[in-house]
């Protein structure tokens, strides 16, 4: 028996909550030290039989030494108790799912995120999580990027940073380009799919992304990250921290710069950011101040590439900024925005059973996008036509700037009461205010129009208040976990919009939402559990839905009833989960596929629609060196009784087409991801990362073979290429990336990390996003399709130095 080889594994959890403690340090006598993974699991392989002492430590907890006798494959689960210094996890646990919560979620640790953090935006680093589809306007993952989860776009994905809302209050999207390289200051991320737990900010209609930034490090550090790659992409990051000073204080800082030319023509990005954090650790309290900022300038690529350009093989064509008179492009057709964030976070242990955490926050954003307009009508700008000589000009080339100057501030709070190990209750909420000034200026005109410099032709001052309060409880009677969550949310919104008489006047709307949630988990044994839950979500329309409508035509708020059920297992070298969902919508705002003149999607209410599917994810260690992680989502996403209206240019009337049941736009039936990792030597890893996304429709008609070609139809095109022009969908795609990492150390450097990431190794031609404009011309349906092609084979290489 002494020569036999055994496995010792287990899970590290919080003794009171049962929550996993990812990142806990686990060591045993006569063997190595390892770090618990994203679900708190640890495992030692190839151990000889005998007695071992397992030592487990984690910041904010009392270190545990536990004696274990190993004479077979052994499981030893270890629960840690909060120590003299409380942990900062209290900042986010109030709105996060625990390891046994009846909710579908994925945790990502800093270590996992940093493997791929070579300059691409945060959505691209989340692309391998279940049901996720990522997009990049510039085609190379830098600049404007986005993520859809279960087919829901960024306006329906709730994003918080340390529990503070990040979504824009009006458009409700999260623009990660405004905070470049944020992931370098992130400690961990939890993604919840579906309605999830109660959170702050916009309602979660597809998912929630809960981000926790830098937390305490006990030792001083200096880290330099430099990366470079295709399309002129360069990233430079410096991070440093003091560690814990005098047992109470710590300071951390980061400075980043990212530049990229982009794959699409002129789609460059010039991005800068910084992050500064200071904290005080008391015996029963933590105070942390975060100040972080991002500045971006990107050349506009948000209209995509016209279908006829793709069909002719021009995959990088960008028509934005074209100047007709000179047949050149305007070099400042750019988006420019700066966003500054200030956070004051406070955690207080009020006793052995009660704790409090709260935050004050303030965000200031300002910037504009500038564009060249060819022969634009002066009446669009409230400018009187001018006569020069014998010629009257009612249109001219001009340059305009569309400004946004906004601020967002408020308070969040949570009380957590845990009278016994089997029961915990959270009472929390938030109050936030948003003020946004939208104003538009003319900077230059080709023809003299006698307007003053920076002539302001329109202005809209908006204000939004958002209050919510919730109570949540988890009770553990025996092997059961009973979960209940009640949230009330009130929204007040003032904006400039059309009244019933088509006068553009300031208006107010008031919305009240009640969002109950309930669930049950049954722990079959310490390795297996099953769960089921029901949740209600409500979601308000966005700014454009209000400002571009009257009270009679204004879209209604959306309602979602979300049913989830699943099974999770942890079997030493194998972990897996399966989750089924049925999301029933009432008055869902679905995308028509069309875009307005700033690239925003147009939505319309549909009475009945649903998403139903199964998500599977798992990880297996095949050998000591070889492991495989994979996930797949299979779904049906349907609209019932959808009515499409196409404008007929021949008659000047709208033509209605009724559809009984069709696919929801941008909702693929299959999304799958895979990562095969091989570690041939200590510190070295080779990973093959694969992603498959099935067909996505550009609108809600499931249109494949329309009658007639577009007005841009070209009979010389092959049938295959012509599909770009005549069909309103994005082709399925299967893309593979290769990542090579090697980490080692020398005497004066704690770690030297070298990474090479080769994206799209087979150089597939594929698109991840698109838009369509359909009408009727000459008795035929004409489709004007636009797509967002992604780069062929390209690379990023990085050098990381830790001191």
Description:
This protein has about 800 residues and is mainly beta. It has two domains: about 5-80, Carboxypeptidase-like, regulatory domain (Immunoglobulin-like, Sandwich); about 220-800, Beta Barrel (Maltoporin, Chain A), CATH 2.40.170.20. The protein is about 5% helix and about 60% strand. It is built from six helices and 47 strands. The strands form nine sheets. The chain has a 22-stranded antiparallel beta barrel. It is globular. The two termini are about 45 Å apart. Residues about 595-600 and about 705-715 have low confidence and may be disordered.
Q: What is the fold's blueprint, element by element?
A:
Blueprint: E1 5-14, E2 25-28, E3 33-35, E4 41-48, E5 50-57, E6 64-70, E7 74-75, E8 78-80, H1 90-93, E9 105-109, H2 110-114, H3 122-125, E10 132-136, E11 145-149, E12 157-161, E13 164-165, E14 186-193, E15 207-213, E16 221-229, E17 233-241, E18 249-260, E19 269-281, E20 285-299, E21 305-306, H4 307-311, E22 322-323, E23 328-329, E24 334-349, E25 354-377, E26 386-388, E27 391-393, E28 395-420, E29 423-445, E30 455-475, E31 480-498, E32 504-525, E33 528-539, H5 543-547, E34 558-571, E35 574-595, E36 601-621, E37 626-648, E38 653-663, E39 670-678, E40 684-693, E41 696-697, H6 719-726, E42 729-730, E43 733-746, E44 749-759, E45 767-777, E46 780-789, E47 794-802
Parallel strand pairs: 1-7, 1-8, 12-15
Antiparallel strand pairs: 1-4, 2-3, 2-5, 5-6, 9-14, 10-11, 12-13, 14-15, 16-17, 16-47, 17-18, 18-19, 19-20, 20-24, 21-46, 22-23, 24-25, 25-28, 26-27, 28-29, 29-30, 30-31, 31-32, 32-33, 33-34, 34-35, 35-36, 36-37, 37-38, 37-39, 39-40, 40-43, 41-42, 43-44, 44-47, 45-46
